[in-house]
Amino acid sequence: MTTAEKTTKSKKEKALVIVESPAKSKTIKKILGDGYQIEASFGHVRNLPENVLGFDVNNDFKPTYVIIPEKKKVVTKLNELAKKSDKVYLASDPDREGEAIAWHVRELLDVPDNKVFRIEFNEITPKAVKYAVEHSRQIDMDRVKAQQTRQILDKLVGYKLSPVLWKQLGNYRLSAGRVQSVALRMICEREEEIEAFVPKEYWSVHAIMDKDGKLFEAEVNKYKNKKFDINNEEEANKIKEFLTNPDTEFVVEKVAKKTTKRKPTAPFITSTLQRAASSKLGFGVSKTMQVAQKLYEGIEIDGTPVGLITYMRTDSVRISDDAHEMAKSFILQNYGEKYYPPATNVYVKGKQNVQDAHEAIRPSYPDRTPESIKQYLSSDQYKLYKLIWDKFMSSQMAPAEIANKTIDIKAGDYNLKAGTSKILFDGFLKLYNDTEEDEKDADAKIPDLEEGDKVKCKEVLPKQHFTQPPPRYNEASLVKALEEHGIGRPSTYATIITVIQTRKYVEKKDKALVPTLLGRTVCKQLVTQFADIMDYKFTAGMEEKLDKIAEKKAVWNVVLKEFYTPFMEVVNSVMKTSQRVVIESDKKCPNCGRVMLVKTSRFGTQFLGCSGYPECKTIISLNNSVELDDVDNNSEESTVDEKCEKCGGGMIMKVGPYGKYLECKECKNRKKYIRSTGVKCPKCGEGVIIEKKSKYGKIFFGCNRYPDCSYALWDEPTGNTCPECGELLVKKNTKNGSFEVCSNRTCSFKRTIEEENKE
Hints:
Elements: H1 3-10, E1 15-19, H2 25-32, E2 36-40, E3 46-47, E4 55-56, E5 62-63, E6 66-67, H3 72-84, E7 87-90, H4 96-108, E8 116-118, H5 126-134, H6 141-169, H7 180-196, E9 201-211, E10 214-223, E11 226-227, H8 233-243, E12 250-262, H9 270-281, H10 285-297, E13 299-301, E14 304-306, H11 321-334, H12 379-395, E15 400-411, E16 414-425, E17 454-466, H13 475-484, H14 493-502, E18 506-509, E19 512-515, H15 517-529, H16 536-550, H17 556-577, E20 584-588, E21 595-600, E22 606-610, E23 619-621, E24 637-643, E25 650-656, E26 659-664, E27 670-672, E28 676-680, E29 688-693, E30 699-703, E31 712-713, E32 717-721, E33 728-734, E34 737-742, E35 750-752, H18 753-758
Parallel strand pairs: 1-2, 1-7, 7-8
Antiparallel strand pairs: 3-6, 4-5, 9-10, 9-17, 10-11, 10-16, 12-15, 12-17, 13-14, 15-16, 18-19, 20-21, 21-22, 22-23, 24-25, 25-26, 26-27, 28-29, 29-30, 30-31, 32-33, 33-34, 34-35
């Protein structure tokens, strides 16, 4: 071997791996070693331009992409590193969005095609990452085209429908969206159902039965062997009178015993994880995804970053063979043979529009039990990891065996029924119960009875009930409804829920999503004028077309053309005929008695203003706080919805040489005017963020319930929440422009104010 050959042989290849998030870098670096440099694109590096559509309708919808301004330095750095590397691996997330990010990065790298490779892994484990590197591939352009079509559709709908709302409602902060508007419709229609609901009275009759001193409860369920309704107290008392008659005999007519097997359900997908985390842990959708992201990207355990769960954006219930084997080994070793089923549990999702054939959400290392790594996790991380671990492991366990017993008792023409269930073998229930109700071991409460046995009636208890309206959606049930209708994708649910709240279309009350007057008005305008866009089946059908594009069963620009022509005809027609819409509230002006209107300030704060303006300048805050600094009237004196602390008279706001103050109309008592941002405190949920000054004179923003609540920010909150982590966004003014950035220092989300207004 020549010296030159030895030198070439000894030279180590340098490889660059480009991921989406820097949080993964340490974990992947530890796996691949020193020959690999791991860098992040920090999400998307290119996008459609902000102030124009960004695609040519007359040229087959050809898009024009521009580098996101704050990503220019990132792109420059990635290019420099790529040129110095022998190979470049694009390792963005294993979904449609990740494929598009990989393509955009590739388009910006000035290196030969033969040194750039696409890799994807569903979990950040040594086996998965090394396998991905060894089995690299080219970028899947069909998946890219599907994402591109989705992006163009969303831009088109938002860009064309939002101006309709601006014109009709006079508010340039309003927006419409292909999916968000349909989600809003669901919430508004549910509210209409609740308002239209008329409660109906009904009764049930329960009897306390006695057999040899053992008491149990039975309920009247049939009359002359037919089910019937008890509509009022009179009917209930008639039954009670008969049952309490000393001559009435109670005879056991039938005793049925049945043992059933209850099988475990599939491991989590994105939507079921979000629902379970909401119902069992009280987590919001955004919080669930934020915590899951950290578990996926890697947690420091004994100084080594470890990816603890598989990719958390998936709608597949598939489990790899390796995961099956690891689960089997763990169950047999720790729980015994009876807890493992005769045949491996395999799950198939009923819906056909599963986007990717990736795995369900599961622990990357099933042998890492929640308790064994609890010391390395935060409280929220531990709770969510335990939920995922328990659900996955239970999905691979044996069915539970439940003994059910029902007893039918005859009393004249009436039948009474008692029933109970008892867990004979807990099986998968040892780890996880899908239902909120546990099977009660109530067998001891019902004595052993045989057909023909006579029992006594000790007491009869009629109970009044009223039918209940359907419940309002919460985040979890809205996700379920969206999934059932085939609307949106796992990666979009959290963003959808965040956006409709950020736009003030929906607000949370006791965890329920309640439409505001503004939201209901926006919904009504869109449903009336754009029936197709707001139709559930139409929106779901569009999702199916995007899937077909990814599967090479549809052509992307043909799908766009079929949508564009009829859509624009409706938009143009509506814009020609649309009129200004006034949103009337159900409140009267406290000063003149006229109707109060819902208005929006130039900063996006909603308030009630008198319909008699400018003759009557009364305004009322919708947040129960003074927000006059935001109001779009330039008057020097305005009536406010606040009473004087001394005499109880009405207060007015005045502007003096030293700023604004409040003065009582009656006793002229004055108090300092404190500017409110109108943003509800995210920590206590009761207070409002107001402007304050530190002891050194520096302005900051904090909760008005201080010292009961200590929440504070140095920058003014905008009222919007971060689409990535759910924390408040704040205003940042720099020489390069005005930005909205996340108040969470560990989150890198940032966008221009102009970008926020266009969404």
